[in-house]
Amino acid sequence: MEQGARRGFSVLFVAAWLAVPAWGEVTLTIEPVTATIGDPVSVRLTIETDEEHRPAREKLGPQLGPFTVLDERWSEQPLDNGRRAWVWSATIAAYEVGAQEFPGLTISPATGDAPAWETEPFTIDVVSVLDDAEFETGAVEIADLKGPATVAPDLAAAWLAGAVMTLLLAVAGLLWWLNRRYAARLAAVPPVADPFARIAPHEWAFAQLRKLLDEQGSSGNDRFYERLAWILKRYLGGRYRADLLELTTDEVRPMLQQVGVPKTVLTRIVPVLGDCDAVKFAKYRPTEAERKEIVERVYGIIDQTRPAERPVEEDAQAGAA
Predict the structure, then answer these.
(1) What's the CA gap between 67 and 101, in Å, rounded?
(2) pLDDT tens readout for residues 180-228
(3) Pairing of strands 67-78, 34-36
(4) Model confidence over 114-133: pLDDT tens digits?
(5) How far, in whole angstroms, is CA 275 from its chain's centroid?
(6) What is the largest CA-CA distance in the chain?
(7) 215 with 295: CB under 8 angstroms?
(8) Nearest to residue 41, comparing CAs of 30, 50, 49, 56?
(9) How far apart are CA 16 and CA 303, in angstroms?
(10) What is the DSSP letter of 191?
(11) Residue range 164-192: average pLDDT?
(12) How far apart are CA 291 and CA 221, in angstroms?
């Protein structure tokens, strides 16, 4: 992308100017410069210098301004003339829309008498998953984060079914007998019903939000906000194995703290539930813009708390070297 190339060159030029020329050069690349809320953004910082003036290689996360560092690592590559390249690679994500400033980085040297390498701040545009015009008309269509899973039919099983039917019935009978005889002794805890129909909690929550948005034209504010709070509580309860549906908003916070929910997430959850309570109990009448904004906040909470996917390893050949 031409715009991305120009902006990437700008960061590269400034970072190299701030480094000490006699001891090395520093380059910074960020891709992409426009991302959807919650999407991963790749950051790569390269310092080329000699062995004597190597960087300290410290961790820069877990938070860089408005960006959460999902993964970071240092690697080392040999260069010509006895020089080496130290590379800091990271995956970051932002959970607020708008122009978000990636802060300037300061990399300290391994030796105390050398100056640090520095880069200038860089702006990344974070866009919403919702379209403003479509939301105002009620025709919101949110694309699935993942395509539907498909399994090719196994026709070979039909040919084998007749030959193994007797064996399967015998095994099933044996398992039924063993279950009746020993299940009560072996069960550590009573079985819990799966509220998400064997899908990941965040996928269930996204599906419920899409359904709620489709039905928003036919439901009033009380019903809309009550359903939104129910979706968020049910998702968090499944994600962190806590029963939240019967708890008040004041009781939810200590329960989530007890099960290990990060403080940065709690500061986003409690205000959302409080806004829902204001509509339900204080009879507050929110505007269409407020309804859209609170849905965006719930999407951001789910994006931030869902299990992170491991990024694809970069520079496999360089790492092997």
Answers:
(1) 9
(2) 877 766 655 455 466 777 888 888 988 888 888 888 766 677 888 888 8
(3) unpaired
(4) 778 888 887 888 888 766 55
(5) 24
(6) 80
(7) no
(8) 30
(9) 35
(10) -
(11) 76
(12) 9
Count Cβ atoms below 10 Å from residue 256 Cβ, excluding itself. Answer: 22
Amino acid at 135: F
Closest CA to 9 of 104, 118, 120: 120
Q: Give the burial class of 32: count Cβ atoms within 10 A of its Cβ; 0-12 exposed, 13-18 middle, 19 or more buried.
A: middle
Residues 6+ away with beta carbon under 8 Å from 187:
none
In the structure encoding, which two tokens stand for residue 173, read together? 């009978």
Kindly give, in sequence order, each residue whose CB lies less than 8 Å from that of residue 255, ignoring residues fewer than 6 positions away.
242, 244, 247
Domain ranges of the chain: 2-127, 135-143+197-305
Closest CA to 224 of 286, 282, 174: 286
Residues paired with 94 in a beta bridge: 67
CATH class of 2-127: mainly beta
Alpha carbon distance 126, 96 (integer Å): 7
Output DSSP code: residue 81.
Answer: G
Record the tokens describing residue 72, joined without a space.
């970071």
Angle value at C-alpha 40, between 15 and 10, nearest 5 degrees: 20
| Cβ contact 41:53 at 8 Å | no
Place of tokens 């008040």: 248
pTM above 0.90, yes or no: no
**Beta pairing partners, 34:** 125
